[in-house]
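TOPIC: backbone geometry
CONTENTS: sequence, structure tokens:
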Amino acid sequence: MPYTTFNRSQIFTLTESLTKSADHYFDPCTLFTELVHQNPQAPYLLFESASTDDQRALKSLIITQSALTISALKSHVTVRAITTLGEYLLAYLQEIFKAELIHFQDQEAIFDLPFEATVRPRGVLTILDPLLALKSPEFSPFIGGLLGYDLVGDVYQITIPEEGRERDLSLYLAEGLITVDHQTKESRYEELFLSEITTRLESYKSFNQHLKHYQSILDRMSHHTDFPIISPELSTEDHTIQAVPTDRKANQNGLASLSRGSTQGYTHSYHQQYSQSYPQADGDMRSVMDPKKGVQIPDREPFKAVVESYIEQIHAGKLAQIVPSRTFTVPCPDPLSSYRALKTAYPSPYLFYLHDPEFTLFGASPESSLKYDPKSRELELYPIAGTKLRGMINGEIDDALDQLAEETLINDPKERSEHLMLVDLAEEDLALVSDPETIAVKALMKVDRYRYVMHLVSQVVGRLRDDLSPIDAYLAVMNMGTLTGAPKRYAMEEIYRYEQVARGSFGGAIGYIQATMEGEYFDSAIVIRSAYVADGIAKVQAGAGIVAESNPDREADETENKASSVIMAILQTSSMAKVA
């Protein structure tokens, strides 16, 4: 019977280089695919990142084995043990949450953890506290996964539609972890062990067996990468906005980060080029949004009507901005291949693939949700609002057209109005959890360029108050203003009234929290440009920011433009599957 009390030193980590040399560099996505195919009933999680500057690969991370899975619906949290270590951890949680335990069977426990502002301000996320508290010099708990949009229901006391509401969160405590640094070409495997059930010698033997298993998979793999080489014109380095007519002042230096770091001086040895099959113009986009190809497209008229009603509310002073969405569906027989196609055509700061036995979630998000560095205690929001197609001729970037597209974007009254309101909202959100004098706009209305589109972005930071954790910060700022609107609570209520369906993953956050002796690292992306796949059907959702200057037809077009890249990836790989 597992012990219910833990000594921190009972859990320890073994780690070793996964590859023998930099020459043995490999593609993590191919390894991940092999793991999923070997055991599709197990959960796996893949995070990858590409630089915003030139969109080269930065880092990849794979949860190869989960000790626990943690899911929640409303106030009920379900924790399932997958491994022997997971069983001990589950018994530990049962001991701590005795009063909240409402069911236990077959190594699965259900706890009732309703949000209470004074007693339980973290609601269902309270379940993470004792797990993160186990940190030690030999154990840094790593928990990754999805924080769904509908988590706001319990915290904000907002009524969530029952239709489509399945999970408010899906998290996984890593027992086995592979990390890859694409710049140094270093990769490592680490695994957790429990001294209570195994000696150090037995642990080393087990660890080496698992290490050799992964190395044997790598030996069978061809050595290539899915991240394409980007030509210099895609870098934002040469497209800095010199002046933006606004009364804001921003520090243009910005922060170097794992997801948006610079790759200056890094020489990539692979030469895979971009696919040219993605939508590059309105005509291409319309060819993607084709019911004959199995794409289910919602009627535009109800969406246009609600946009009109929101514009009226904005003029009446009830709303400043709001972000309704439309949902498209399409058959998706091979999500892994679709993800590979999406990331090859659209390298992004946040690439993710979550494989759960009950569903799959993959995407290429350009926008962080919340980042936190415990060394500086700095919180960061990175609002993106304002998108325009790159200036292209015959699929190639034309410098003059591209510069014209940038100028049109940053001078568009609608885009500027929407973006500045979201920067205001980001500052207001961070004010809830930051020392007031530390809130700053480090970058304002700069342009990030991707293969097919450019985005208007800003960077807002603040120092987390000493009495709060990054989980407190996330609960205070969710969901991001770029997916809700302002005033935020009223906007979310209005969105639910129109959409009549729970949003699930869309607009929530995917990422991780890791407790170290330095503190808790938190990094997450907004779940956009993504597909939620269940029973072979992909749900692709996309929103549009509505302000006073909005045009209903253009906003409907915007949702289709945003969804088209994901749908194209699915259609491309679906047609390949049929040929095969």
Notes: The domain at 1-221 is CATH 3.60.120.10 (Anthranilate synthase). The CA atoms of residues 342 and 569 lie 5 Å apart. Confidence is low (pLDDT under 50) at residues 228-283.
